[in-house]
Design a protein that fits this description.
Layout (H helix, E strand, L loop, with lengths): L1 E6 L2 E4 L4 E9 L3 E10 L6 E6 L5 E3 L7 E6 L4 E6 L8 E10 L3 E5 L3 E6 L1
Parallel strand pairs: 2-11
Antiparallel strand pairs: 1-3, 3-8, 4-5, 4-9, 5-6, 7-8, 9-10, 9-11
């Protein structure tokens, strides 16, 4: 089994920054793609950013230039640096990792609340 533990969410004023972390532990041989989604009440979960095992990144248009995703393979951890935050960035942020161990499986974190006040 694999567990993903998120940290770093909280309350911040508009224009501020937060850094989310997602640490994977358990039965892990390697991790392919890692990423972040977010969700607000009444809406579907939406993609924020992804990063491949080679370090190639992809961002949703609404966060390009403000958010940055990175990973530390030695720690099985990935990060989301969020700058110039806006009230509309408020959401529960979920991380995921595609883990290889006797097969390949996607795991989700428990979610962390990000609230941006105006």
């Amino acid at each position: 089994q694999v567990q993903l533990v998120e940290s770093g969410g909280g309350l911040v004023q508009a224009g501020g920054s937060l850094r989310l972390s997602c640490a994977a532990s358990g039965s892990i041989l390697s991790i392919d793609k890692m990423g972040w989604y977010r969700q607000t009440p009444g809406k579907e979960r939406e993609l924020v950013a992804t990063i491949t095992s080679e370090g190639s990144t992809n961002y949703a248009d609404y966060v390009k230039g403000r958010f940055s995703i990175s990973r530390d393979n030695a720690k099985n951890t990935h990060y989301l640096q969020m700058n110039s935050l806006k009230p509309e960035d408020s959401a529960v942020y979920y991380c995921y990792s595609v883990v290889r161990f006797l097969g390949i499986k996607l795991y989700w974190g428990q979610g962390t609340q990000v609230t941006v006040s105006s």
